[in-house]
């Protein structure tokens, strides 16, 4: 495919959309709507359109920045964002089986990427082919690429060879703008946020139709912004124009009453470098509830990943991820978010292939992930520190003379009951889990060590008749010294064990455990 043409069209679209006049001629738009209805059957606008994006395609999407330049690592290697599975003819890309997202390309056909410009890289991944070629079988056999690939996890470099497929694609260009969180209900495993989902796609079949109307009405090219038409959803549905229908796979509920959505048809006249083009854009604004998998093992020092799994609910068209990346990764929207009890610490877009039960086939998903970290201060000040105080009071009973058993037991039993009460404070924030959280381990250890002074008090009282008071004092002294040391050792071991086996542990614990 010809990425350079796409990139230029994207830039043209951004420039034009920013200069759009909203005082469009309703009469022209009404006429255009009627013409679309008349020509719907002839143009087959209900089918997925085929754009000018055609050519040899390796199925490898290299990572781009907001300026459409390749993102390079410190060693100037190229970062792979995604590897697509199939082309428009349902043929499998060879690269899908041997190359993975987030891997790095060190060299192309024996030439180190550090010595190559973006334009030179384009010439390899998007080679010029004869315009009469219409299938993979007709492609030049010399287009095979030899790539040196380095994993982001391993230092070893593997050499692979990949052949291209002939491809024609209608790329979809989405943006996801998150405005705010309404709530995060970790107990139910859901969250609700206010967002804008916007995307556009090219529809070349409309170009000739719009141009005929412009010519018929004697509208000059510099007045062609009249061909910008905002179409009501019910009208768009009656036009039966193909719609990619991007949505979130893990969506639970949308606030239909509070939502707003629009369709816009835009035409751009030709110039010296670019042919005329027509686009349809769709924008949805509203509140939506999504599900997410919460891992509470490190609670309350936990992080969670909230994902928005973007998927094409109809044909599995590729996504122009640079727009998606710019709106989600580079926009820094998290600085304006107000999330009670949480804060966003990182963001990522993770492409993956997943089997869809509805479509009965593998589908491409772009998972927009936000890693959020729990504000644990509440649990430190309201639970952990009070528990430490209660344990200190419980162990202070060992400074009472062994013969005053009732006094000792009064202190230790009251402290033990106080610890039990803290279970009810923790339970309100968590679902019923089949595993113990970090705080559960802390409380269980606290139960155990709150019970130790009670047991020691009974043993000391029973020993009064068979040993000297000096021996009992030494016994209590040893318990008072080694008991707290053992408690803290067990706490540290527990923290380290959980942190080392769980990626959802808060960053400060992982740093403390030297795991980062």
Q: Quote the distance from N terminus to C terminus.
A: 40 Å
The Rg value, from CA coordinates, equals: 32 Å
Tally the helices.
12
How would you spell out the order of helices and strands? HHEEEHEEHEEEEEHEHEEEEEHEEHHHHH
Let me know the CATH homologous superfamily of the largest domain. Neurotransmitter-gated ion-channel ligand-binding domain
Principal-axes geometry comes out as elongated
- Supply the CATH class of the largest domain: Mainly Beta
Would you kindly provide a written description of the structure presented here, covering whatever features stand out?
It is a single chain. The chain has three domains: 54-168, Pdz3 Domain; 172-374, Distorted Sandwich (Acetylcholine Binding Protein, Chain: A), CATH 2.70.170.10; 377-512, Neurotransmitter-gated ion-channel transmembrane domain (Methane Monooxygenase Hydroxylase, Chain G, domain 1, Up-down Bundle), CATH 1.20.58. The strands form four sheets. Strands 2, 3, 4, 5, 6 and 7 form a six-stranded antiparallel beta sheet that branches. Mean pLDDT is 83; it is low at 1-25. The protein is elongated and about 115 Å long. The chain has twelve helices and 18 strands. With 516 residues, it is of the alpha+beta class.
């Amino acid at each position: 495919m010809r990425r350079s043409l796409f990139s230029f069209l994207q830039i043209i679209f951004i420039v034009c959309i920013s200069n759009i006049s909203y005082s469009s001629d309703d009469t022209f738009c009404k006429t255009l709507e009627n013409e679309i209805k008349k020509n719907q059957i002839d143009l087959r606008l209900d089918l997925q359109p085929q754009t000018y994006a055609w050519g040899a395609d390796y199925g490898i999407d290299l990572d781009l920045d907001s300026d459409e330049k390749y993102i390079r690592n410190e060693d100037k290697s190229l970062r792979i964002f995604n590897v697509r599975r199939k082309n428009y003819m349902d043929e499998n890309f060879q690269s899908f089986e041997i190359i993975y997202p987030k891997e790095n390309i060190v060299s192309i056909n024996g030439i180190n990427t550090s010595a190559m410009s973006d334009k030179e890289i384009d010439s390899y991944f998007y080679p010029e082919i004869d315009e009469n070629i219409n299938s993979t079988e007709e492609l030049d056999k010399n287009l095979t690429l030899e790539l040196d690939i380095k994993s982001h996890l391993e230092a070893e470099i593997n050499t692979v060879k990949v052949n291209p497929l002939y491809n024609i694609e209608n790329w979809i260009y989405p943006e996801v703008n998150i405005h705010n969180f309404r709530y995060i209900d970790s107990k139910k495993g859901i969250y609700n946020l206010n967002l804008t989902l916007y995307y556009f796609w090219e529809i070349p079949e409309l170009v000739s139709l719009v141009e005929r109307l412009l010519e018929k009405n004697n509208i000059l090219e510099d007045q062609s912004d009249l061909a910008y038409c905002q179409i009501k959803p019910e009208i768009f549905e009656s036009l039966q124009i193909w719609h990619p229908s991007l949505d979130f796979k893990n969506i639970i509920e949308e606030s239909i009453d509070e939502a707003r959505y629009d369709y816009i048809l835009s035409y751009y006249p030709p110039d010296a470098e670019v042919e005329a083009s027509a686009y349809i854009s769709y924008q949805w604004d509203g509140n939506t509830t999504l599900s997410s998998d919460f891992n509470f093992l490190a609670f309350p020092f936990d992080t969670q990943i909230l994902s928005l799994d973007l998927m094409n609910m109809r044909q599995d068209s590729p996504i122009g991820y640079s727009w998606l990346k710019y709106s989600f990764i580079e926009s820094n929207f998290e600085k304006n978010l107000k999330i009670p009890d949480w804060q966003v610490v990182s963001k990522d877009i993770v492409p993956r292939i997943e089997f869809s039960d509805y479509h009965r086939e593998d589908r491409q998903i772009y998972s927009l992930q936000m890693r959020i970290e729990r504000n644990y201060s509440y649990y430190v000040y309201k639970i952990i520190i009070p528990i430490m105080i209660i344990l200190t009071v419980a162990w202070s009973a060992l400074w009472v003379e062994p013969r005053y058993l009732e006094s000792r037991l009064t202190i230790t039993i009251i402290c033990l009951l106080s610890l039990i009460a803290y279970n009810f404070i923790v339970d309100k924030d968590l679902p019923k889990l089949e595993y113990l959280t970090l705080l559960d381990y802390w409380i269980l250890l606290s139960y155990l060590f709150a019970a130790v002074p009670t047991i020691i008090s009974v043993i000391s009282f029973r020993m009064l008749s068979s040993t000297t008071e000096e021996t009992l004092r030494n016994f209590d002294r040893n318990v008072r010294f080694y008991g707290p040391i053992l408690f803290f050792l067990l706490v540290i071991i527990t923290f380290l064990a959980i942190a080392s086996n769980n990626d959802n542990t808060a960053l400060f614990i992982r740093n403390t455990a030297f795991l980062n």
